[in-house]
Amino acid sequence: MLLASRARRRVAPQPALHSNAMARLSRRQFLAAAGAAGAGFALAGCGGSGAPRPVSPSGPAVVAAEQRRRRPGARVHDVAVTAAPLAVDLGALRADTWGYDGAVPGRELRLRAGDVLRARFTNGLPEPTTIHWHGVGLRNDMDGVPGLTQPLVQPGQSFTYEFTAPDPGTFWFHPHTGLHLDRGLYAPLIVEDPAEPGAYDREYTVMLDDWSDGIGQSAEASLDDLRAGRGAHAAHLAGGEGPMSEFLGSAGGDVNYPLYLINGRRPSAPVELEARPGERLRLRLVNAGADTPFRVAVGGHRMTVTHTDGFPVEQVTVDNLMIAMAERYDVIVTVNGSGVFPLVAVAEAKAAQAMAVIRSGPGDVPGPGSQPAELRGATLSLDDLHAARSVRFPDRRPDRVYGVELGGGEEGYVWTINGRPHDDEPLAVREGERVRLAFVNRTTMFHPMHLHGHTFEVMLASGAPGPRKDTTIVRPDQRLTVDFVADNPGQWMLHCHNVFHQVGGMMTTVSYVADDPGGGSEAAAADRARLYCEWLGKGLSTA
Ligand code: C2O
Ligand code: CU
Fold first, then answer.
1. pTM score, two decimals?
2. How remote is the CA of residue 363 from the centroid of ligand 1, in Å?
């Protein structure tokens, strides 16, 4: 109680919601409304029959959707990706960790929109894992969620991911197992736009990360602490120890890390991004952290935001921006003369930072604690962002609305969606529908909520359509509404991208269902029922 009122005091008043009546309904009303529309959707239970069945991750609907994306003569990129233990140099500091293809971040994969990626993945780790291609509207059985869309890839085994990448943008890939993401297992996936206006001279991908692996406590030990009520999260719960973020209305995260990195380097030995005076640099910012939102700024420069989670927006220029876990922002910076400029990513409310430098001339590298004035200038707000016309959804009323209530985080570090950890009551949708998710955050933490296989359009406080995103921050006490078009059949995770919250239960499924069990063979029907029931039974796809 005390805690809730403390959090409420710290939260900037939210503007009157949106005109949408659904958003004003209580949770019970939400669920009732959703249930009324979805009464026929109650899953009959495993082995049952009669109710609509979940669309199989590899069934005919999924194959048909992939065929619609596949262009004749599409270029196929054959690549090998290996996950393995390795030693990395974080900048005169060695750490033993796990990574992709011998580096952290892993080697960038680059395609053009419409191309096919055929990635033969080999698991050289001592534990089973998978790859999730974050943000890509791909075929469901290539989405890399173990137990839901594919079996785990065992140590020493391989799995070939093959899919069309339909949309251009800045994406990335990472494991979808346990806390693997908190190691060095992440890499960029860049999909170029054949119609790119090319209003920049050079580009860099800038991957931010919170780091402890091999130098501090393991992620597993941090989770044990959280569950036992120890650590930064517990201190916040106990009554306001530690810094709070004005922007997020909450603590910055639940774990304090010994280091924060940009492109695998600590701030005392930063990566240098070469540039020429006057050049327009496109920076593809990716937050690969497990628990840390970053405030990003470039000393002596403003940033023009061009894309959110890969999709173009009407451009807006700011001094700094907040990027939560798994979000991406593409920005353009016009290099201001000859010099050495700090690119700083402050771990929000954690009193530490990551740094790289942009070098366009001779000069000393700024100190690791450099705090450019731009950090205190104008911050990008969600309400500044509008999807570019080319990627707006047609104006249409939703066919289906779900309340998605985010809860938990106290006793035992259990996190919930609609009151249940590892929610086993999927949000059922039918192909072709316009679906609205109305998030309500009942916790004292912010949550970057991510939907697989789709991007949604965020509704702004004014009720106007905002940016296209696949991951968006929901602050404490905030209600936030997003719409998506159900055009990619399958079984898709919806979860918080704080990896500790995710493993702690803040996850559910958006489940396409078909009246027709799929038209596939008996074997295919049995297969989909088995996968789905395994997932329901396990309730958690982390092992
Ligand atoms: Cu990058 Cu399920 O997430
Ligand atoms: Cu969360």
1. 0.88
2. 40
